[in-house]
Amino acid sequence: MLHNFGAGRDGANPSASLLFDAAGNLYGTTATGGNFTACNLGCGTVFELVPGADGKWTEKVLHRFDSKDGDGPNASLIFDEAGNIFGTTTYGGLGQCTSEQGVKGCGTVFELMPGAGQWTETVLCDFSSYSDGEYPSARLIFDTAGNLYSTSLYGGQNGSGTVFELKPGVGGTWMETVLYGFGGTDGEYPLAGLVFDAARNLYGTTYYGVNGNTGIVFELTRKAGTWTETVLHAFCHVGGCPDGEQSQAGLILDESGNVYGTATQGGLYGYGVVFEIVHADDGR
Known about the structure:
By secondary structure, the protein is mostly beta strands. The protein has strands at residues 19-20, 26-30, 45-51, 57-64, 78-79, 85-89, 108-114, 119-126, 141-142, 148-152, 162-168, 174-181, 195-196, 202-206, 216-223, 226-234, 252-253, 259-263, 273-277. The strands form 5 sheets. A 4-stranded antiparallel beta sheet has the order 1-2-3-4, with no helix packed on it. A 4-stranded antiparallel beta sheet has the order 5-6-7-8, with no helix packed on it. Strand 9 and strand 10 form a beta hairpin. The termini are far apart. The model has no long low-confidence stretch (mean pLDDT 92).
């Protein structure tokens, strides 16, 4: 056991995967705990675990969210080449959204920069309205130009979630662009993050959509600055779907461009599946 969270200021309810740095330290998030003054259950934390010579690990809280800068970091983190940390919070920020549980804010994208013994947080994007997305719950990814990409669970033009991009600008500012807004028949509620293929097309999943409450696997292709969605697979719309139902995890691709993922329900026994979607050029 490397660390036991005590539901206190060191964080509580870690729900995302961990990240190593080059020195072998671990980094992660807790969805609650930390700052109990601003949030009833605590707004969540970013933490580091450092291994010692005696085999014990020491936790250090790098940041405690205070609702205005985010609340509920549910996704794993990423590093840039300079060692800065980037992540999302599902709630919090200055937006006017209110969840079904009464949690305020539409969510944020944040950066943590290491300094002399402490880390400094900057909010890169403060989701503020239905149109620019609500409740980002997934991990970010970088492209080769240093732009960030991910999904928001709700919001967008039709309210069913978005794929968004953040571009760095002058003076440390970042500009958000909604690349695609889901509308129901093309997917609803993307819970997971995205992945690029070799041609820089984006792939992801939605929890619902197309055939009702079963979800899809999608591809976004950019042409002349516009992103077009293709539904690669729509899970069936009846109970006990043999091909799976309700995918809420990210995808991976092999060298041939074949797509792999999971669905939480459906399949032969109704308890979920691992699936592959074969690329047209694979020859199978």
